[in-house]
Design brief:
58 strands, alpha+beta, 901 residues, 10 helices, 38% strand, four-stranded antiparallel β-sheet
Length: 901
């Protein structure tokens, strides 16, 4: 049962900045995890690493190998992206508001509080502490909000909340040239700086201009005209101007000491000036921060009263994209400030806007809606359009073939996701209240959903429409849903009338109303082998109903506490239910006997809320299972509830096999078992005291979904801080993976090793010569991967034939999943023309053995190549059958003719 975290669905974006690597990889933070989306292949995966709290800032190296992620607690991870592992960790003393890699990838600029720190990027170094602090600039009077590097990595442009932008030179000068260490200041802004960017001359690739963008919707254009190289002017800038008549400390009052000091300073300057021959030393060159900068123009975006929230600049195209707090974004051609596009995405604030490397795609993120868009601005078309659920996911359901996962949430929407790619491909929004239950029909093309709005709706996954709606005579709130194996009968349990409604799927008519429960019916499930319906209620009973015979309750199982949920074993010979006292009861539905009982209170207990008066060990709240799910073979059961743990039990031995902790995110409530007493004051916990500055409106913490709707007095006891819990559990019908609907999103755990390391992802020359060299060195698997990446048909076939039959299983297991389609196409082509039939069939057999589950999961994408392979095999089978039958007839004829003679 070696399940590992595979992906996070239901939340493409939740705040912070977004970066684009290698022009097509979109990297965004989702809570305390990082999601990577391949825009070409339309696939997304979540890195297995977790931060201690929500990630606030990320930066990616220019070569795409390293990712620097900073969380709300100022703890940073330096991640190797191809291998998906953390290489180094570092913590800062102040919150990090901006971070940027230098263009050469050697340095890292970090804005931590009022400081700008330049660190040497550790790369692949295996040191105890690989980070090296190169320089620290402490000139800003408020926190640093924007950073940009010059193309030669020698200068940094830093925007601050103190309404200034400073131009720093990384080179440190001697004491005689101390004035050259001071930054150049761009002044004139009337609000905090959101973005500061260098502009270059496309012919020489040298800095010739700069742009600064402020929160009050202004953009300043600055021009650089160089310096004349006079040392006297530059050194004079750093010294105090002469002030005759002003006595210095320790002077005798007549100004003699002042005059002597000034004379001494001038003599010292003249000596240094003479040493350099009256000109700048060659090492200083053309200093940007000491040259002549002038403001060329000041332009307004005319979006008042909205504030500018995000911006980005593309040097090659000289384009600026800006996003505003009213959901509008604009694309402008600089330096003439020509508006190319001005469009509205939503009514909520755009929290990130970024170009890709080529500048043809724009990426926008809206944290409040959980929305992520990639837009091709020339053709005005979407490359990516994903949006998570506005509120927590309540329920989920796997399709019978395990390829789709449906989710329903409090935002009244039903979304269907492709498990392999992690993308949502359809959203149904006809419900007018929270969706509480989902069920896939056996045909795989129909989805049922129940809601508190009093309807059960059937969705067609071919035409993406609501083709049938089931309602009750009077308005009811449905909280559970079930369908029999034939799909003819639909049942739903209610929250308010304690009844079970039965409808016909074909006609949509109400067939029966089952009464008898005295509490909300929160669990419903049909037996997999017969037409018996099991229901659980808060009235401390589980009832079995014969729906088709109409006999009412056939059997009643009484408990000592409220029953929260009920599930059948896949073979229908066992029934499991959880109660409010933390027990899981296993019943024999045929004989009506209690088989086993599992005590799970201690297993699921854990996590103390900020508002709890008792410790986690002594608290009685949350120590029960609200969701159960059997494995495909019925040997173990998954159980989850209002806790950070999901428990896996062996049923036969009643022992805990594994306890999964769904998150380590300290931004959520209920993750820590022991609270820090330093955070407790006479007025209550520090986190619950609202001491936010009213001027801080653009912070990331104001945009997270956990704070929505919690600003009303008394609306939430812990000030809107999300509490970790599991609302739903489902095991895939294949038994190879399972999904949990949690506060963090939908977590998918799998037994399949989805990540097979591809050695060609490293800096290796992928050439035909490299393929030949790998073959000559006796490395057939490496040669095959190289040839698949080259996509040369002759090389792929050459590498296939170079593998000996004994080594086929080992080579097949090393092939990454992304190359399966190309390999299957090669086998289909070889079967058409190659005489080595058994050899190729051996390859196909091992491929199906090793990657069978992955092929099944991606059958829709692999269907054309699989059909080609099937067609080739069918043709060969027919040819062999004809040949064998003709040979059989010929042999019979020869034998019979020989016998006659």
């Amino acid at each position: 049962m070696n399940f590992r975290f595979q992906n996070l669905l239901g939340a493409p974006y939740r705040g912070g900045n977004v970066v684009v690597s290698n022009n097509t990889l979109l990297i965004s933070s989702v809570g305390n995890r990082i999601s990577v989306t391949d825009l070409l292949k339309s696939q997304t995966h979540t890195l297995p690493t977790q931060s201690s709290s929500n990630i606030a800032r990320i930066a990616v190296s220019p070569d795409g190998n390293f990712l620097f992620a900073v969380d709300d607690r100022n703890r940073c991870h330096f991640i190797n992206l191809p291998r998906r592992i953390v290489l180094h960790r570092i913590s800062f003393k102040k919150p990090v508001s901006a971070v940027r890699f230098s263009p050469d990838g050697a340095l890292l600029a970090v804005g931590t509080g009022k400081l700008l720190q330049i660190w040497r990027s550790p790369g692949f170094k295996k040191d105890f502490f690989a980070f090296e602090l190169v320089r620290t600039f402490a000139d800003c009077d408020a926190k640093v909000t924007a950073l940009d590097w010059s193309p030669d990595s020698n200068y940094v442009l830093a925007g601050s909340k103190d309404l200034t932008v400073r131009l720093y030179c990384l080179k440190k000068f001697d004491k005689e040239l101390a004035a050259l260490n001071k930054p150049f200041l761009f002044l004139g802004h009337r609000d905090s700086v959101v973005g500061a960017f260098f502009g270059v001359d496309n012919k020489t690739n040298r800095v010739c201009k700069a742009y600064t963008v402020t929160r009050d919707c202004y953009i300043f254009s600055w021009g650089y005209s160089g310096n004349e190289g006079k040392f006297e002017d530059l050194v004079g800038e750093g010294s105090e101007p002469p002030s005759p008549g002003t006595p210095e400390k320790g002077s005798d009052g007549d100004g003699k000491a002042d005059v002597e000091a000034n004379v001494g300073m001038m003599v010292k300057k003249r000596k240094v000036f003479d040493d350099y021959g009256g000109n700048l030393p060659e090492e200083c060159g053309n200093l940007l921060h000491k040259g002549k900068w002038e403001r060329l123009r000041k332009d307004n975006f005319n979006q008042a009263p909205a504030k500018l929230a995000a911006c980005d600049y593309h040097r090659g195209l000289d384009l600026v994209v800006v996003g505003f707090s009213n959901g509008v974004f604009g694309l402008y051609q600089m330096p003439d400030f020509v508006c190319i596009h001005l469009l509205s995405i939503s009514r909520e604030k755009i929290t990130t806007a970024v170009f890709n490397d080529l500048g043809n795609w724009l990426t926008f993120g809206c944290a409040k809606l959980g929305q992520l868009l990639v837009w091709e601005w020339r053709s005005e078309s979407y490359i990516l359009k994903q949006q998570g659920h506005y509120f927590d996911v309540n329920c989920l359901a796997y399709s019978p073939d395990s390829q789709f996962l449906a989710t329903g949430a409090d935002d009244n929407k039903v979304k269907v996701w492709t498990v392999s790619s992690g993308f949502c491909f359809v959203t149904f929004s006809e419900h007018t209240n929270a969706v509480t239950a989902l069920h896939f029909m056996a045909s795989n093309n129909c989805l049922l959903s129940a809601s508190l709005d009093g309807t059960v709706r059937a969705w067609d996954l071919f035409r993406y429409r609501n083709f049938r709606t089931f309602t009750s005579p009077s308005s009811r709130q449905f909280v559970s849903l079930a369908s029999d194996q034939s799909g003819e009968v639909i049942c739903a349990g209610t929250l308010d009338s304690f009844e079970i409604f039965v409808w016909s799927m074909k006609t949509g008519r109400l067939l029966d109303i089952l009464s008898g429960h005295e509490g909300p019916v929160h669990g419903l499930m049909f037996s997999p082998t017969n037409a018996i319906l099991a229901s659980s209620s808060w009235d401390k009973t589980v009832r079995l109903w014969d729906v088709f015979e109409g006999k009412g309750a056939v059997e009643t199982f009484n408990h000592t506490h409220d029953v929260l949920t009920v599930v059948y074993r896949p073979d229908g010979k066992q029934l499991a239910c959880s109660t409010l006292d933390g027990l899981i009861h296993f019943w024999d539905p045929i004989d009506g006997l209690l088989m086993y009982t599992i005590e799970g209170r201690r297993d699921i207990a854990g996590g103390r809320l900020m508002t709890d008066r008792r410790s986690a060990a002594n608290s009685s709240s949350g120590k029960c299972f609200t969701s159960l799910c059997y494995s495909a073979d019925g040997s173990y059961i998954l159980a989850g509830g209002s806790s950070k743990f999901i428990c896996m039990y062996d049923i036969a031995d009643q022992v805990l096999l594994h306890r999964f902790q769904i998150t380590h995110n300290l931004s959520l409530d209920g993750v820590l078992d022991v609270l820090n007493s330093k955070n407790m004051t006479a007025a209550g916990p520090l986190d619950l005291i609202d001491d936010d500055n009213s001027d801080v409106e653009e912070g990331i913490d104001k945009q997270t979904q956990g704070k929505l709707g919690y600003d009303l007095p008394g609306s939430m006891p812990n000030h809107g801080r999300s509490v970790i819990r599991t609302k739903g559990l489902r095991i895939a019908p294949t038994g190879r993976s399972w999904a949990a609907a949690t506060t963090e999103g939908v977590l998918v755990y799998s037994m399949d090793e989805t990540f097979i390391f591809d050695p060609t992802d490293l800096d290796i020359d992928v050439t035909p010569e490299a393929v030949d060299a790998a073959l000559s060195e006796g490395q057939p698997s490496r040669a095959l991967i190289l040839s698949l990446r080259l996509n040369e048909d002759t090389l792929i076939k050459k590498c296939i034939f170079a593998v000996s039959p004994v080594d086929i299983p080992a080579v097949v297991s090393s092939v990454p999943l992304r190359y399966l389609q190309r390999l299957i196409e090669a086998f289909a082509d070889l079967l058409e023309s190659c005489p080595h039939l058994e050899f190729i069939l051996r390859w196909c057999q091992e491929l199906c053995k090793t990657h069978g589950h992955s092929i099944q999961q991606n059958s829709r994408n692999l269907l054309p190549s699989l059909k080609s392979l099937q067609k080739a095999m069918a043709r060969l089978h027919q040819d062999l059958a004809d040949m064998c039958s003709s040979n059989e007839y010929l042999l019979r004829y020869l034998c019979s003719s020989g016998a006659n003679k």
